[in-house]
Design a protein that fits this description.
single chain, 102 residues, mainly alpha
Amino acid sequence: MKKDPEYLKARARIHAQRGFYTHLIIYVIVNLILFLINLFQKKPHQWWFYWPLIGWGVGILVQAYHTFIPGGLFGDKWEEKNIREYMEKKGMGQKDTPPEKE
């Protein structure tokens, strides 16, 4: 069972989701602490907490995209489609091309 490719794929996906949620919780906690530090410092009108919030937030969004959108923008389907189009354009035979993934 543990060597089944579908099982391994599902396990990797769940592992990625767990990693994302762990990262998200740490992001919220750390940025809340930074906000509180910024709020209670001697110069409370000099806001800086949002810089790490924004920078790290971009990283969180990229991780969410890779975790929850399988294949992404340029995934396997995109690659196979473009290979077929290129081969048709060049007049190459399609006997050796793998079947389309569903």
